[in-house]
Hints:
Layout: E1 2-7, E2 10-14, E3 21-24, H1 37-43, H2 54-83
Antiparallel strand pairs: 1-2, 2-3
Amino acid sequence: xxxxxxxxxxxxxxxxxxxxxxxxxxxxxxxxxxxxxxxxxxxxxxxxxxxxxxxxxxxxxxxxxxxxxxxxxxxxxxxxxxxxx
Length: 85
């Protein structure tokens, strides 16, 4: 299934295998596109500017810092574990 459009409280979902289109009226829609929200919205014909420039750089900086810290922590744990043999 993919989102092919919508208006108001109605969404159009397209079955990727059969090409059938279904109209649904959900109570809640969660857009989990993350930092790509503007690209996802643009594909639906919506013009938004939630993410851009500095915000994206800050987000990726936070992600990279977390990944770096996680790698250091895992490496340190491995050294302590291997050293205790």
